[in-house]
Write a structure and sequence with these properties.
337 residues, mainly alpha, 61% helix
């Protein structure tokens, strides 16, 4: 018997009523023979892990731009933390961990360099074309940009979860809903950890009413939110927290916006990042022929210049964007012998 069939049979025995089983997938845009070892969702997870966009996330900003230190989060470590939180919730609720993990690992593939500062600037520059959002770009990465324009040909459920992971989204599967909430749990808590490490916060700065409910450490806060989610989602076909925990998470996010995300220190760095993104965008719009590799191929296939320019910039790591900016706009040192 094929190993995949054994895996699918195990899903039938072990997964709950609300889980999306791999045999029930809506499939891929392009037909492929089934793998004889892996289920469709396991195959999607592997494709995401092995793609170039996944590797690039290790050099993309999460919150702090160009931090000095080895322990600040990057877009990649954030993604791994989301995946772990989501898997913990999915396992407890007897949902499909493979589907959950694939969505989590792919949800930020299309994020710009310099975090949300880069995303905001690119969205302003593309306002006439409907703006830019990293969830839509993540979908474009897996459908169009990876594998030299062929895309990863992922299942419908994984693509739906990637597209709809933001707060405004409406995932079609329970697994997608788990990732949507896990993303918030992850970034709110690990951003506090990074802000304390950076000296922008002290642990005692966190409001007392929040500490009283979910504790003083990152692990205690995350554990409290995971437990609350599991207890309030079991058996009802929805993923949600208790009213008290939802309010706590909202208050924690608002606290982080006041003290960290919109602080003067952060805004100063964001302005620098936005200038880099803006100048690069204007340059490549005027000189699309200097873009490299598959991006030239996209132009030759008739993709609009603004779209390919967005693709090119969004694919950049922070350091690649800085290097390109220096190459294009900073005078080089020279000496005359």
């Amino acid at each position: 018997m094929e190993l995949r069939l054994l895996q699918e049979a195990r899903e039938e025995r072990l997964l709950g009523t609300y889980a999306k089983k791999s045999v029930d997938t809506k499939g891929r845009e392009r037909f492929e023979e089934k793998c004889d070892i892996r289920t469709d969702f396991q195959r999607d997870r592997d494709r995401i892990i092995h793609c170039k966009s996944f590797r690039r996330m290790k050099h993309k900003t999460q919150v702090f731009i160009s931090p000095e230190g080895d322990h600040y989060r990057t877009r990649l470590t954030h993604t791994l933390e989301v995946a772990q939180i989501a898997r913990s919730i999915a396992r407890a609720l007897c949902l499909n961990e493979d589907l959950t993990e694939a969505i989590a690992l792919g949800h930020d593939l299309g994020h710009t360099p310099f975090g949300h500062a880069g995303e905001r600037k690119l969205s302003k520059l593309c306002e006439a074309h409907g703006g830019f959002s990293h969830n839509e770009q993540s979908l474009r990465v897996v459908e169009r940009l990876e594998k030299n324009g062929a895309g990863l040909n992922l299942t419908w459920e994984v693509r739906d979860g990637i597209l709809n992971h933001r707060t405004s989204g409406a995932p079609s599967t329970m697994e997608g809903m788990v990732v949507q909430l896990s993303d918030k749990i992850a970034y709110t808590n690990h951003d506090i950890d990074d802000a304390v490490r950076a000296g922008m916060l002290l642990p005692e700065d966190i409001p007392e009413e929040i500490v009283a409910l979910i504790g003083t450490t990152s692990s205690s806060r995350i554990n409290a939110m995971i437990r609350d989610t599991i207890m309030n989602s079991a058996g009802n076909g929805e993923i949600h927290m208790s009213k008290q925990m939802r309010e706590t998470l909202t208050n924690l996010r608002e606290f982080m916006f006041r003290r960290v995300y919109m602080s003067r220190v952060a805004i100063d760095e964001h302005e620098k990042a936005e200038k880099i993104i803006g100048d690069l965008y204007e340059y490549y719009i005027a000189h699309p022929e200097v873009m490299e590799g598959e991006f030239l191929q996209l132009l030759q296939e008739g993709e609009p210049v603004w779209q390919v320019t967005c693709d090119y910039i969004a694919c950049m790591t922070d350091r690649f964007a800085v290097a390109k900016y220096s190459q294009l706009f900073i005078p080089k040192e020279w000496s005359k012998l």
